[in-house]
Amino acid sequence: MPPDASAASQRFLVRQPLLDASCRVAGYEFGLRDRVPVPVLPGAESFEQARDEYLIASVVDLEHQRILGDRLTLLDLAPATLDNPMLAELPSGKVAVAIPLSSPELHASCTNLAAMGIRAVLDDDGAELPAAVPAAGLWARMDCRFHDAMSLGQRAEYFRRRGVHGLIAGNVDSEETFVVCSKLAFERFQGDFLNRPRVGADRKLSTSVIQIRSAASRWSTCIQSGASRTMLTTPKQHCRTIRPSSQRARRLAAAGVGVLPR
């Protein structure tokens, strides 16, 4: 890629964090912005191919710049891309690719990815569950929008009985769904709900990595243990009380962050 490719790709790339059960960031799913045209690499013959190849090239570039780190990188690619030779350029052992369970080439695709050091994530798209899953499919993802608690439990048991080591809860859209999936021992969670700051019953803030681990933002949110007020602080600098009647407190409440009474 050209020298300015990384800066350019940031205009097109989006990422969603994959969290563990403690709401710590364990990886990211990378994609491209919707309805934003991307540069077309030579040889692309379709819209899907152009977007997937640019996404792969961008991830390779991030790895060259040591930006990816050791966290898992998840990609959702079109079925036709699963035999694209560009996949061999992805960093071995760091990248996973989602493959729909309904794919007729499920076993072959998982085997090919494993040969390149790419993990296969079996993407449960609601189709009828096959009698067996590929041995290379060590992870599976379920879309929580399409299943109730009983269905999630049944499908989670199905995957575990067939040797799947890790389960990802996709599209977690509420606290209740997060609790259900946690009790079902899902290992990873993703969804827009998890990106919003919120206060739990134990009075500890649980936020997305965008809120709590951003290198650009040094703000930290803390709740004084046993105290009766919430404070926002910068590291070892200014500290001020948030009053429920203040304009700042009202904005926080509207954003879903609770404010304790003074």
Quick structural overview:
The chain is an alpha/beta fold and 262 residues long. It contains seven helices and 13 strands.
Which tags fit this structure?
single chain, 262 residues, alpha/beta, TIM Barrel, 2 domains, eight-stranded mixed β-sheet, three-stranded antiparallel β-sheet, 7 helices, 13 strands, 26% helix, globular, disordered C terminus
How many helix segments? 7
- Principal-axis shape: globular
> Largest sheet, if any?
8 strands, mixed
Q: From the helix content, strand content and strand pairing, which structural class follows?
A: alpha/beta
Low-pLDDT residue intervals, each spanning 5 or more residues:
1-5, 199-245, 257-262
| Topology, number of strands | 13
Computed CA radius of gyration, to the nearest angstrom: 21 Å
Percentage of β-strand residues: 15-25%
CATH architecture of the largest domain, please? Alpha-Beta Barrel
Oligomer: single chain
Overview of this protein structure:
- The chain is of the alpha/beta class and 262 residues long.
- It has 2 domains: 5-195, EAL domain (TIM Barrel); 198-254, no CATH class.
- The chain contains 7 helices and 13 strands.
- It is globular.
- The protein starts with a helix and ends in an 8-residue tail after the last helix.
- The relative contact order is 0.10.
- Residues 1-5, 199-245 and 257-262 have low confidence and may be disordered.
